[in-house]
Amino acid sequence: MKQGFTLHNALFIGFCATLLVAIKSMMRMKLGLTGHSMFLISLFYLVCYGATNKVGSMTLCGLLTGMLAMILGVGKGGPFILLKFALPALAMDLVLIFMANMFTLRWRCILLAIIGSIAWASKSWIQNLLVGMDPQVAFIQFGLSSVKGGVFAIAGALLVPVIINRLDAHDLLTTNKAAHK
Amino acid sequence: MSLLALHGVSYRHHSSSIDLFNQLDLTVAAGECHCILGVTGAGKSTLLQLIAMPNDVDFDGQIIHHPNLRLGLVMQDPNIQLIRESIGAEVAFGLENLAYSVNEMFSLVEHALAIVGLDLPLDTLVSHLSLGQKYRLMLAAQLVLNPNLLLLDEPWAQLDNSGVSELNLVLQRLVDSGVSVIMTEHHADAFAEVIQTYWLLAQGQLTHVEANSINVVSASSILKDQCCEPDLDFSVPNTNSAANTQSLITDEVCATENRLSIFPLKVQFENQTPVVEIRKILHLNAGDIVGLFGENGSGKSSLLNQIAGIDDSNQADILLFGKPAKFGRFNKDLGLLMQRPSRQLFEVTVRQELEFSLKRFHLPLSRVNEILEQLEISHLETQSPHKLSYGQQHLVALASVLCVKPKVLLLDDPFAGLDEQYFTNIISMLTAFARHGGTIIITSHRPILEALLTQYWQIENGQLTTKALL
């Protein structure tokens, strides 16, 4: 059995990245709620992980999403948009290395979603520090963003086991032994 | 020369706790024809897929492909493999990938289609083909690449009698020229002339069986047993006779209650010549069981789609319960089992699949257990219907249709992929269904269940004719 990404995996990750950018660009909801973008980010990244059961799938999805968003001009921030999407994915994958076989899929997703939201908020933290914000204020801002983003990220993460179970029931996942525990 | 070798192959699906295969050994040399027998759900199709694509599946043991192996696989449901719009493009797909020139392709494609008896223009749309024709098409798409090992998944179920005869000739020619064949079958007797070695796949083990020890139970012999039940009398069936119908049904349903009337009509695709023409008025009453027979592509499924109202081009000429056939109008009174059962399965487990319709029509959920037990598929209850074998999917789809107790049941080739045990179970259920006033139309490539039928419809040369039963 091949250990790397199969064509099947690659197509699925590309599909998730495209769908994430498409939904974000079509649904321009001005909710005024900090962190609501973490709902889709956490949902799609974790579905990628659940479907492929491979470390690196979320980073791949994040990089693809960031590049697509940058090229298509979705959201504000220019090249920073790449960081916005890739940073949470990278952090989630790094943590996943240490907890790949721990907990059930549901709890793994929740923990990864929290890690992702912290990484997502750290981008604003770095930006705030670079523009000269008081470190204490920047840290409080970072904490608030992490909590708000975390709430949305967990909401997205809770949907992942349901989606994975349905994909598995339809025999769309080829090798997913660990992901279903 | 050994083209393929399996050594100690074990496999377990990740959602199962039981080994589907346990230490399988098989060697196939050039020019050999092997047949794998086994009950519905034994893992025959999975074994063929494992042989064809070992890199895509986690398994233990070794599957060795000879370096010169050119493998062709035709799956039980050819729709899974079809990717192009026209039949010419479909057969040419493999050649295109091998960089054949256009001039070379034409003759090769036409030759491959001629071998399988699919005599149609190359620009014929694949979507216009019947399932049996699609099976032939996929066979041509494999043969055009000159495979030296051909894997066939239950060809008897999808092909009509002439298709089976043609395939026998093709296989004999291929085997004589050194091509190897592995097929899975419930009806191995149909290919007895070409099969050299028989294997039985049961409880995860592949055991060699002698040809003369195979107990092939044909549909007719099963039916004979059914007809010996003391409370049934099919000895003198009488076409569309109210008296005969009355003997089948209980007192609570009026035997002359008209369920379906079909007035003269033509079934045809847009801007094409008619596939089927009906020239006289047909009536079906409560308790009628109709056999609709015809070769691959004769228009059986198309007619059934019109009766169900999926295709409404002849809506005014088909009256169901006295009303024009319209999809969704008759709710639970009309049940349709499609030829590809996967098209009507969508839930996560078999139980949920059956409960869906019951909940929709506010019927007791206890019917799920009843029907699962009657069909002897209780062991599938928690499994995903999408991961079941083709035959098992047929059983689940039929159970989901039957559990709401419709008044009219349309069954499009319901016995494909089923072994004799399940075949018998279904016949028992359908007999009981008709006795309680249900009306059934069953389509098939070949005449079956003749002793059970009250009407016999045959599509031949584009005409639907009714035949008197003996």
TrEMBL record, chain A:
The chain crosses the membrane at residues 7-27, 33-51, 58-75, 107-126, 138-164. Keywords: Membrane, Transmembrane, Transmembrane helix. This is Core component of ECF transporter. It comes from Shewanella electrodiphila.
From TrEMBL, chain B:
Keywords: ATP-binding, Nucleotide-binding, Transport. GO terms for molecular function: ATP binding. SMART domains: AAA. The keyword Metal-binding does not apply. SUPFAM superfamilies: P-loop containing nucleoside triphosphate hydrolases (SSF52540). The keyword Nucleotide-binding applies. This is Energy-coupling factor ABC transporter ATP-binding protein. Residues 4-228, 262-470 form the ABC transporter domain. Pfam families: ABC_tran.
